[in-house]
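re: that chain from earlier
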Amino acid sequence: MAEAAHLRNGTARAARAKEKDERKADHRQDRKRANVITALRRRHDQLEREIDVVERELAEVSESISESSEAGDMDKVQEFSEQYRKRNTHLKELWDEWEHVGEKLS
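^ sequence. v structure.
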């Protein structure tokens, strides 16, 4: 009889230890998910700031193109047009990443 009780206690202890290990594993998984979400939110915010900067730069370059065109300086128009193209390409990449990160947050 005592031996059976001892076996039941051992089994109960093993079950409690297993449950504790499972809770720890669940907690680690929850922390990992929280860390990933935090990193994604930071990146999303950073992308928004970068997008704002590039959009302002595009507006400035566009103004420079107009001014150079009005002055008849076609070399400057070409130079500013290339800058505009590069910045616009970069802006599209930022928007694509912003959208991708946003989807992961959903």
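The mean pLDDT is 90.
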